[in-house]
Each structure stands twice: as C-alpha cells, then as structure tokens.
Amino acid sequence: MLFDIMDYISSGQYEMIFIQAASILFVIFCTLPVHEYAHAWMAVRLGDDTPRLAGRLTLRPMAHIDPIGAIMIFLVGFGYARPVSVNMHNLKNGRKSFALVALAGPVSNLIMAFIFLVCKTVVDVLFVKAGIPVAVYTVLAYFFIYAASINISLAVFNLLPIPPLDGSRIFNLILPEKYYYTVMRYERYIRLALFVLLWIGVLSKPLMWLSDIVYSGLNWVASLPFTLTGIL
Question: Taking the domains of the chain in order of start, what are their residue ranges?
Fold first, then answer.
C-alpha cells in the first residue's frame, strides 16, 4: 500500500492517493469492527459470554482497532484488529466451536468483499448504460475495488496458522493442545517476526498472489448475473 501511494505521488496521480486512503480508512473504521464483531457474535452464540462482558459485542470502531494492525494495513496492505478474548472452556463444543469463532472473522471479510464487488459491478453498469460522469465512475469504482481488495487481503492474511491470527485458532483443531499453548507463549515475538517478514516481502508477495486469486473468483461470481442477463 505504501509503495502504491509513492508510485501515485511520483506519477502525479494525487486523486488515486485520496481514493486509496479513503478506502483504507473505511476498512479500518467500518469493516475491521465487523470482523471482530463476527468473532464476538459467534462466541456468544456458541456459549461464551466473555466478548459481551468485555464490551466487544459492538460495532464501535475504537473497541476493536489495534494501532499496529491498522498501521500495517497502510504500509503493506495486511493487518489485524485487537483480538476478541474467548474462553474456550465456555464454548459448547470446545475446540471445534473455538475454530468456528476464529473462522467467523475472515468469512465476514469475504462477504464484505463480495458486496463491494457487486457494488463495483453496479457502478460499471451505471457507467455503460446511464453514462455517469467519468470522474464519478473513477472515484466509486476504485473505492470499491480497493475496499474489496483490502478485505480479501485481511481474510487471506488472518487465515495464516500463525499467532495471533485467526488461522492459529483454526489450526488448534489439529495441533496437540500442549504444543498449541507452547506456541502461544511466544505470541508477542511471533507477531514482531510476522511484521518484519511482511515488510521485507517474504510473506507479502505470496499473500498478494493468493489474494489476487480470491479476488478474481469473487469478482467473477459478483459479475456473473449481470453477464448472464446481458446487462454487461
């Protein structure tokens, strides 16, 4: 993300900086809270009231935003919010329910990405059929593209089986419990290493490749009804 902005500055595309920054802020303050709310909602539904008692069963942005995770979105396009605390022993089916709670966040990101891609397709239709101004089309189309892309990146990133990401909670299903808690003791150091690997490109490049594949698939599904009906 940072390198994209630098490219826009060097090429004089200042309007693209505004569009990308606006979409990133939208994701941080509007969709990251949905991601964490999904975790909290699923945990409460499966028997653990901890998220509600901790004030996490809410869509208020400041209840969920992690400053470092938000900065990472600006720098490398991948990041995270403040994890929702869940007591696995309160869940109805233990580790299986814990995995469902973890999965709820990335799934919410993919649902939001799909909605944004449908909105982008609608904007395409309005541009082709109704002739909306090019400037309006550019702002709306790129906003929805960036918002969808960031949500997909967050989903892919959070599914990595690395603490403190959601994938590590899902991986808990197959990892012996004693090893899982051993890994979790070093979560702070693993998080720092994760940031470094993203910054130097060791992880960001393969993650971007996976995100592009997911984006293409969701975009194809989002545009399919419009293509089949001949609207586009």
Answer: 2-228
Look at the chain and count its residues. 232
Residue 36 annotated in active site: yes
Q: Spot the catalytic one: 15, 36, 177, 187.
A: 36
CB 198 within 8 A of CB 76: yes
- The C-alpha atoms of residue 229 and residue 231 are separated, in whole angstroms, by 6
Instruction: State pTM to two decimals.
Output: 0.84
pLDDT tens digits along 145-181 = 989 998 998 899 889 887 777 887 787 777 666 666 6
The Cα-based distances of 13 to 64, 85, 131, 145 in angstroms read: 33, 42, 24, 17
Q: What is the pLDDT of residues 218-230, one digit of tens each?
A: 999 999 998 888 8
Q: What separation in angstroms does the CA of 79 have from each of 68, 129, 151?
A: 8, 38, 10
